[in-house]
Amino acid sequence: MKLGVNIDHIALLREARGVNNPNLIEAIGICQMAGAEQITIHLREDRRHINDKDVEDIINHSPLPINLECSIENEIIDIVCKLRPHRATLVPEKREEVTTEGGLALSLENEKLTTAIKRLQEHEIEVSLFIDPNAQAVELSSHLGVEWVEFHTGSYSNIWAMLYSNLPQTNHTIKELELPRTTLKEMLQSELETLNNVATLAKFTELKVAAGHGLNYQNVHEIAKITQIEELNIGQSIVARSIFSGLYKAITDMKALING
Q: What is the C-alpha to C-alpha distance for residues 256 and 135, in angstroms, rounded to an integer?
């Protein structure tokens, strides 16, 4: 299972002071030395961390493939087609959100989505769709003709946190309050079974499979057991640990957990 390291939060730290420190290109070199197989970045419409020059510099200078997360807005797709990363992962985006809250709402009749996919593929860019883990989303992804799907693991991560980290049960995906541990355990097992089933379905339809969102050093081991998943994209937890251990060790520690 490959590891893509999302470096958005390194850029966010840089933006706190508006200087080029920490340097993203230097971070990529450390990611490569530590065994990461890919760099993931998100060019948001509000440019809250990664900006246009970052994308250009990273694509031009990174020794690792670049997975560029982006919305399907025409302005953003224009930039992606011009810079041609190895892969573009299409994600939903809302200005007010702290982080991506769920998968894309897919439809074969969504002209903006189908046009974005076609344009990216015409520029020899692999396309991945960031989707919720359900069979309908997998089937629609296959019909849309993309190469990859990336499953949103937010529900799994949220349930895990409530079960083992004593976090308040206030996440928008969990409607019930103060659920008993037995119920949370059942929900967690159900999420894992769902992820396993949809990953199997995606492979059957000849889609490549990635996963990510909310994965960390405590919860990643169960996801890493799903052999149909080829790649995990993880960012915030790696960057957070790097504050104490350094980026190299934070990545090698995550690699060790993923590879068992």
A: 31
For residue 158, which of 200, 191, 181, 113 has the smallest C-alpha distance?
A: 191
pLDDT tens digit string along 213-256?
A: 999 999 999 999 999 999 999 999 999 999 999 999 999 999 99
Range of the domain at 21: 2-258
Residue closest to 100 by CA, chosen among 167, 36, 173, 195: 173
- Active site members: 42, 69, 213
Peptide bond into 65 cis (omega under 30): no
What are 178's two structure tokens?
């103060």
Are 215 and 243 spatial neighbours (Cβ–Cβ below 8 Å)?
no
Contact in structure between 174 and 144 (CB atoms under 8 Å) = no
Burial of 98 (0-12, 13-18, 19+ CB in 10 A): exposed
Domain total of the chain = 1
Which CA distances in Å does 8 have to 51, 140, 251? 10, 29, 15
> What are the structure tokens assigned to 232, written together?
């995990």
Mean pLDDT for the chain overall: 92
CB 80 within 8 A of CB 120: yes
What is the DSSP track for 86-129? SEEEE----TT-SS--S-----TT-HHHHHHHHHHHHTT-EEEE
Q: Which has the closest alpha carbon to 146: 185, 119, 164?
A: 119
Confidence band, pLDDT 50/70/90 cuts, at residue 95: low
CATH number of the domain where residue 111 is located: 3.20.20.70
Give the helix/strand (H/E) hosting 238.
Answer: helix 236-245
Q: Which residues pair with 152 in a beta bridge?
A: 212
